[in-house]
Amino acid sequence: MFNQNYGTFGLLDRLHGTDKLFRQSKEFERHRILLGLTSASQLVPDSQ
Prior knowledge:
Fatty acid hydroxylase domain-containing protein 2; 4 helices; 48 residues
């Protein structure tokens, strides 16, 4: 799905514009640090 990665923190991806597909995906909405016991798929469910 994503075939380019310039850095771990995403700063260079943002600079080069290679994160457009990632920012439009469901994975981007789930890309966060979870501090509770609820899974990311439960916090941001797939659209039906």
